[in-house]
Every structure is written in structure tokens, then in C-alpha cells.
UniProtKB/TrEMBL annotation:
It holds the Pfam family ABC_tran. Residues 28-256 form the ABC transporter domain. Residues 268-302 are annotated as: Disordered. This is ABC transporter ATP-binding protein. Residues 278-287 have a biased composition (Basic and acidic residues). It comes from Pyxidicoccus fallax. Keywords: ATP-binding, Nucleotide-binding, Transport.
Length: 302
């Protein structure tokens, strides 16, 4: 019995392997990235990370380890103080239409319906008026919101708002989707539902996704790769490929064994001196978020 359990544990952990991706084969190539904020906090130090096209990479780590700073540097919203980010071999200098950033807030225009939010975004992208409605409805179907096309955001639940936001993001057709704890404010059940939905959409569309989370289970449920980060200074400490088959189920035994193992790895890399809470963010960072219909639109440079 014990031998069987040990065997199963070993076999699921063998599905977690160090990642090695050459920069010249990468969709996203991050090289020796560093970022120091004006208050001298070193949010990132010497971060190098290569992401293949079509990978689902989860940035995982405790509060303050620089996950969001790295994500915003990929979006071109943070100008790093050192190093480079290249997309398809071209160094980025700011935001671009091939990358789209999604936040925890759904950021829908409150006066527009679900369909209206999407057709507005399609209009901004230059899609002809005649095509917008049909395309919007196709994405509404994809996120399972059929029947809510004419509903205003305040009439939707948190999960439904997030689905509408995801439909709008997909309608913009970026090749890279950058997601900053998008399901962080949802209840546990809705969160699992959203994870399953996102996974099935990712499997069909093959988008490159970089997804920030501090939830180990979420990272292993979704990621083909998990990048473990540690704070002060923010850095990458492990880069692991997850070879668990997809689609994954939240209660899958192999997944949950892996979760326990990665939690232990995180405990080791965090160390005793890192348990103190991270300094609070300055107010301007969050103040601009509520109600900000800002998918893909410039956010303040931090
Ligand atoms: N605008 C800013 N000005 C100064 N320091 C900042 C700013 N934004 C973040 N920081 C600091 O940079 C470090 C990394 O922050 P970041 O938000 O990137 O970490 P994180 O891992 O995403 O944290 P969390 O999980 O809490 O969102 C932290 O110490 C944070 O206090």
C-alpha cells in the first residue's frame, strides 16, 4: 500500500520538470530584467525567462515578489530600469496590439451592455460596423454568456462580468494574453468554473498566456509551466514545466500531489526572513483601477 502510494507520488512529480527554452525559439524573451521603483524598492532583479508560443505560463510567488511588475513590463506598461523584453524577436518599448492585459476587475463600461462592450472594443480595433455584432455574439457564446447579450454589467454576477471581460479580450484577438490574478475576487466555486472555462478556451485558441497568481492550485490547474518567484529582490527561483494532461480537474489526485510539492518548494525558497508583509503599494497604483474600462489601454507607468 505504502509502496503503491510512493510510486504514484513519484510518477506525478516526474511530470514536473525544469524548463529550458532558448531565447531564439521564444515568443516572449525576457533578458536580465531589472526594475527599481522611485522609492528604491528593487521589484525585479536579473530576471530571464523565455516563453514559447502557445504556452500557458503561471507566475507564482508570495506577495511582493514582483509578479505584477514583471507582467506589466511584458505589457509595456512598466519601463524596466534594466534588461529587455522582446516579442517575436523584437524588443518592446511600450504597449502593443499583440499583447492584452486583464486585471482582477472586469473593467467593463457600466453604461454599455455585454454586447455593447465587445462591439465598442471591436470598433476601436477597426472592425467594420456590419461585422461587429456577429463577432461579439460568437465570443459571448464562447464564454457561455448566451442570453445575456443585452444585459448591463451591474446586472451580472462577478463571474459573469469576468466572462464578459474575457469575451472582450478574446475579441481583440491578441496573440499574448497577460492576466493579473483575474479570478482573485471570485468565490471558490466560480473560480474553479472560470479556470475550467479558460483552460478549454486556451486549448482551442492556442494563445500564449502569462498568468499571475499566488494560488499554487490555480497555477498547476492551468499552467503548462509554473515560474516560482521570491521577493526582496524579486527574482525567479524555479522554472518548471507541468506535464499533467489537459483538461485538468480541480480534484485530480496527481494535481493535488503536485500542489503539495510546489507549496513545499515555495516554503523553502521563501525562507524565514521573507514572512513579513510586503510594503503597501502607493495609492496611485490601485486608485486608477475601479471601473477602468482599460483592457489593452495604457495604464500609468510605474
Ligand atoms: N508603484 C510602485 N511604487 C513603488 N513600489 C512598488 C510599486 N508597485 C509595486 N511596488 C513594490 O515592488 C515590489 C513588487 O511588487 P509587485 O506588485 O510587482 O509584487 P507582486 O508579487 O505582484 O505582489 P502581489 O501578489 O501582492 O500583487 C513590492 O515590494 C511592492 O511594494
Amino acid at each position: 500500500m505504502l509502496r503503491a502510494l510512493l510510486g504514484r507520488w513519484r510518477s506525478s512529480l516526474s511530470l514536473l520538470r525544469p524548463a529550458h527554452v532558448d531565447a531564439d525559439r521564444a515568443k516572449i524573451a525576457v533578458a536580465q530584467l531589472g526594475h527599481q521603483y522611485a522609492n528604491k524598492v528593487v521589484a525585479l532583479q536579473d530576471v530571464s525567462l523565455n516563453v514559447r508560443s502557445g504556452e500557458f505560463v503561471c507566475l507564482l510567488g508570495p506577495s511582493g515578489c514582483g509578479k505584477s511588475t514583471l507582467l506589466y513590463a511584458l505589457a509595456g506598461q512598466v519601463k524596466p530600469t534594466g534588461g529587455t523584453v522582446a516579442i517575436d524577436g523584437k524588443t518592446i518599448t511600450g504597449p502593443g496590439p499583440e499583447r492584452l492585459l486583464m486585471f482582477q476587475e472586469a473593467a467593463l463600461f457600466p453604461w454599455l451592455t455585454v454586447r455593447g462592450n465587445i462591439t465598442f472594443a471591436l470598433g476601436a480595433k477597426g472592425v467594420p460596423r456590419a461585422e461587429r455584432r456577429e463577432r461579439a455574439d460568437a465570443f459571448i457564446r464562447r464564454v457561455q454568456l448566451t442570453g445575456f447579450e443585452d444585459t448591463l454589467p451591474h446586472q451580472l454576477s462577478g463571474g459573469m462580468k469576468m466572462r464578459a471581460s474575457l469575451a472582450r479580450a478574446l475579441a481583440m484577438d491578441p496573440t499574448v494574453l497577460l492576466m493579473d490574478e483575474p479570478f482573485g475576487s471570485l468565490d471558490a466555486q466560480t473560480r474553479i468554473h472560470m479556470q475550467e472555462l479558460l483552460q478549454s478556451i486556451w486549448m482551442r485558441t492556442g494563445k500564449t498566456v502569462v498568468f499571475v497568481t499566488h494560488d499554487v492550485h490555480e497555477a498547476l490547474m492551468l499552467g503548462t509551466r509554473v515560474v516560482l518567484m521570491a521577493p526582496r529582490p524579486g527574482r525567479v527561483v524555479r522554472d518548471l514545466e507541468v506535464h499533467l494532461p489537459m483538461p485538468r480537474k480541480a480534484e485530480d489526485a496527481g494535481l493535488n500531489e503536485m500542489v503539495r510539492h510546489v507549496r513545499e518548494l515555495l516554503r523553502q525558497v521563501e525562507g524565514p526572513g521573507l514572512q513579513e508583509p510586503a510594503p503597501r503599494r502607493p495609492p496611485e497604483r490601485t486608485a486608477s483601477r475601479p471601473g477602468l474600462p482599460a483592457q489593452g489601454l495604457p495604464r500609468p507607468v510605474r
